[in-house]
Design a protein that fits this description.
Blueprint lengths: L1 H15 L5 E8 L6 E5 L2 E7 L8 E4 L4 E7 L8 E7 L6 E7 L9 E5 L11 E8 L7 E5 L2 E7 L8 E4 L2 E8 L8 E6 L7 E7 L10 E6 L4 E3 L1 E3 L7 E7 L6 E6 L2 E8 L7 E3 L4 E8 L10 E6 L5 E7 L9 E5 L12 E6 L8 E5 L3 E7 L4 E7 L3 E8 L7 E6 L7 E7 L10 E5 L5 E3 L2 E2 L1 E8 L6 E5 L2 E7 L8 E4 L3 E8 L10 E6 L5 E7 L9 E5 L10 E8 L7 E5 L2 E7 L4 E8 L2 E8 L8 E6 L6 E8 L10 E6 L4 E3 L1 E2 L11 E7 L6 E8 L3 E9 L4 E10 L2 E8 L6 E8 L4 E8 L2
Parallel strand pairs: 1-7, 9-15, 19-25, 27-33, 37-43, 45-51
Antiparallel strand pairs: 1-4, 2-3, 2-5, 5-6, 7-8, 9-12, 10-11, 10-13, 13-14, 14-18, 15-16, 16-17, 19-22, 20-21, 20-23, 23-24, 25-26, 27-30, 28-29, 28-31, 31-32, 32-36, 33-34, 34-35, 37-40, 38-39, 38-41, 41-42, 43-44, 45-48, 46-47, 46-49, 49-50, 50-54, 51-52, 52-53, 55-56, 56-59, 57-58, 57-60, ...
């Protein structure tokens, strides 16, 4: 089929050029993206062209302009192209064209063209080799054989010079440019079968661990491709180790290696930096009192063997006179730095001998370590170097026993271990979390007392100011909007005051609510009812809030906030989701697969009478939660009844009535065409506006913080094309929100660095 397409294409082009002049071209697909279609002018050249495949060399017209279009798989025609490249081939030349880079990413998608290709060798029984560096995140490299570079200083996007060697099997080493003593990978390249012909060796995939993984591939001149076989590297000589003292019953000790004193007066909760240690021999580690005079005074000894090329963290811990006994717990995959320069790599260790198995949870992020018992490690997690509040919970429960603050700001590229230390039951060995850096620095993490809180405004018809203990928390809080989940003090009384919009202080409040929140608990607070009316204004508090659920699911909390609506059931597919919800009731959480659902509203226990039906598209909230809240008046008063959705990020939007799904007024504005996504320094997007609206654009990070706020003012109906600069934003997942007086909606955008 492919050959037939080629023949059809060449015939059509040659007819247009009267068989005048030709060039020879081979195309290699090395962009780590899905299968694509390739068009030449308006004709389909390659259908379902797969990553890491290649065409043979073929004749193409020379001296004419050809637009090469790259489109997604199953494209309809050339107009679906996501990138177009004009080319004009010189007569008589031989070209290698490599599709490279990342579609809608960085470095961007491109065609790399080399016009000095060859199909046959100059010398019999040789093989001709080209090299192309096509790994977007790999540095400048040399390719060495027999200790000497055969391709020298090749950077991403570059071709190496043509090389002709006897057709045989070779061991090829990859080294950093001009550092041929440091081989980072070895491969077997068997070209014995390819006498008198040529091939392109091309670096492919990502070196950093992203998928697809880094591999060198070969494209033969006939179009076949295959990966080079990896040859394991010999282990690097030597080993490195860090020792951490975490045994509270022995506050100061001496450490011996065999008969030699290694550490004198080694204090509890201190650590050594990483140091070189002997390998491939049994070493006796002795732990002795601080008053020791020789290794014979050791109170405990341990035999260890370090292996070449490995790195270790050794933690001395346990009880000298109890259970669990004193021991050395060893982690043999230690790191002295993060894998990525812009990430923080976190190793977690449970070192409290009388503490149960625990879950370690970062608020707003999720579980960092689950069911971790004394002596165990949870190794390494790459996370953003920012501030976190970390909860310690007995494994499998939601009970928070302690909360700690971890400010990782500025620690880009750093790896560290956080370890639990001390005994819960003994005041002499106070429990805490400590971080140890590769240089031996040990830092105690500060304990905090915090709860998580989201506030939703569902009191019809008024904007309000919200004060907490006299301080303004929310200014001009708009009906049917919400805050993201935020950290608030717990264990102390908070006086929440609600005042009319435009107030000057908490003294203008028309309602006051004293609340005391529990450490580690998550709350949803909904301002509800009618100021000065019936039912009266109230602050409804739900104390079992959630921010995350299992991947690919969404968690739904329902709140009945329509003052004149009766008790209702909510159904989907004929099944009752919410049963007998009355005004001011919360119901949930329901955890369901993230997707789109038709929700039917019926009177309580009368599921045969559907009074309204709405579509809830929650597919983009996988792993997250949302609050669906009934809002407005059912009896005809303004604002009219609508169910709304509040996301964890603070965005809100109304559900669409099933009968009105084709009514564009239901959704006045939509975000479309976000590209590139993921973005690096900027992205473009378009706004489809059905009816003139005042528009505000917000970029919200995964913690719910608004990091960019753009007020566009009144925009007319139509399509508007805009650009957002994210050069100064950290890598991660964000939401792009549009806000009008009538609605909010959100689209996800990823930022990579």
């Amino acid at each position: 089929m492919k050959n037939k397409l080629w023949a059809t294409f060449i015939f059509a082009l040659l007819l247009g050029t009267s068989f005048a002049q030709t060039a020879r071209v081979q195309i290699i697909h090395n962009s780590p993206t899905p299968t694509v279609d390739i068009y030449a002018n308006d004709d389909l050249l390659l259908n379902d062209f797969a990553f890491r495949t290649a065409t043979p060399y073929i004749d193409v017209p020379a001296g004419v302009n050809i637009d090469i279009g790259v489109a997604g798989k199953k494209s309809g025609d050339a107009s679906d192209a996501i990138a177009v490249f004009p080319v004009n081939f010189d007569a008589g030349k031989t070209y290698i064209v490599v599709a490279t880079g990342i579609v809608e990413g960085s470095p961007g998608f491109d065609l790399a063209v080399m016009d000095m290709g060859k199909e046959t060798t100059d010398v019999d029984d040789n093989v001709g080799l080209f090299f192309y560096h096509g790994s977007p995140d790999a540095p400048t490299v040399d390719i060495v054989a027999g200790g000497s570079p055969v391709f020298d200083d090749i950077s991403y996007g570059e071709f190496g010079s043509y090389l002709e060697v006897p057709a045989a099997s070779y061991e090829l080493g990859v080294t950093p440019g001009n550092d041929n003593s440091n081989i980072i990978a070895n491969y077997e390249a068997d070209f014995g079968f390819w006498k008198d012909r040529t091939a392109v060796v091309f670096a492919s995939g990502f070196l950093s661990g992203e998928k697809p993984a880094f591999e060198p591939w070969v494209a033969l001149s006939t179009g076949g491709t295959f990966p080079l076989k990896s040859i394991p590297l010999p282990p690097a000589p030597g080993a490195r180790a860090q020792i951490v003292h975490n045994a509270g019953e022995a506050p100061v000790v001496d450490i011996y290696i065999n008969d030699d004193l290694l550490l004198d007066d080694f204090a509890y909760r201190t650590a050594t930096p990483f140091v070189d240690v002997p390998t491939n021999t049994t070493l006796t580690v002795g732990v002795a009192p601080a008053t020791s005079t020789s290794a014979s005074d050791a109170i405990a000894t341990f035999d260890v063997v370090f292996e070449d090329g490995e790195k270790y963290i050794i933690v001395a811990e346990g009880l000298l006179s109890g259970n669990p006994g004193f021991t050395l717990n060893v982690y043999d995959e230690a790191q002295e730095e993060a894998v990525e320069d812009d990430e923080f790599d976190l190793l977690i260790h449970h070192g409290s001998p009388d503490a149960p198995a625990v879950d370690v949870v970062a608020r707003g992020v999720g579980t960092l370590a689950g069911d971790l018992s004394f002596g165990e490690f949870e190794g390494y997690l790459d996370i953003d170097p920012t501030s976190y509040n970390i909860d310690i919970k007995p494994a499998g429960t939601n009970d928070v026993v302690a909360t700690y603050g971890a400010d990782l700001t500025g620690l880009d590229g750093v790896a560290a271990m956080v370890f639990a230390s001390g005994q819960l039951a003994s005041p002499d060995h106070d429990f805490g979390l400590f971080a140890v850096l590769p240089d031996g620095t040990v830092i105690r993490l500060p304990e905090a007392s915090l709860a998580r809180l989201q506030v939703i405004h569902n009191s019809p018809g008024v904007n309000v100011d919200v004060y907490v203990n006299g301080d303004l928390l929310l200014d001009k809080f708009v009906f049917r909007t919400a805050t993201p989940f935020i950290d608030v003090p717990s264990g102390v009384q908070l006086d929440i005051a609600i005042a009319p919009s435009g107030s000057t202080s908490a003294a203008d409040a028309v309602a006051n609510y004293p609340v005391t929140l529990e450490n580690g608990a998550t709350y949803v607070a909904i301002a509800n009812g009618i100021l000065g009316g019936n039912p009266g204004f109230n602050l409804e508090l739900f104390d079992m809030g959630l921010e995350t659920v299992a991947d690919d699911n969404v968690g739904i909390l329902f709140f009945h906030g329509s003052p004149d609506a009766p008790t209702v059931d909510v159904l989907t597919g004929g099944n009752v989701l919410i049963d007998d919800a009355s005004y001011s009731d919360f119901a949930g959480y329901l955890e369901v697969p993230a997707g789109s659902y038709d929700l039917a509203i019926t009177p309580g226990n009368d599921n045969s009478t559907v009074v309204a039906e709405y579509t809830a598209n929650l597919g983009f909230l996988d792993g997250k939660t949302a609050v669906i809240f009934a809002s407005g008046f059912l009896g005809g008063s303004s604002p009219a009844f609508e169910p709304w959705v509040a996301m964890t990020s603070g965005g809100t939007f109304p559900l669409k009535p099933v009968d009105d799904l084709d009514n564009p007024i239901q959704q006045r504005i939509n975000i479309t065409g976000i590209a590139p996504n993921p973005a690096n320094s900027y992205f473009n997007y378009s706004l489809d506006i059905v009816q003139e609206s005042d528009v505000q654009i917000q970029l919200v990070n995964i913690q719910g913080q608004v990091v960019e706020n753009i007020k566009l003012g009144s925009l007319p109906a139509g399509k508007h094309y805009l650009e957002m600069d994210v050069t100064n934003q950290q890598a991660g997942l964000y939401y792009l929100q549009t806000i009008t007086n009538e609605q909010r909606n959100a689209q996800r955008i990823s930022i990579v660095k």
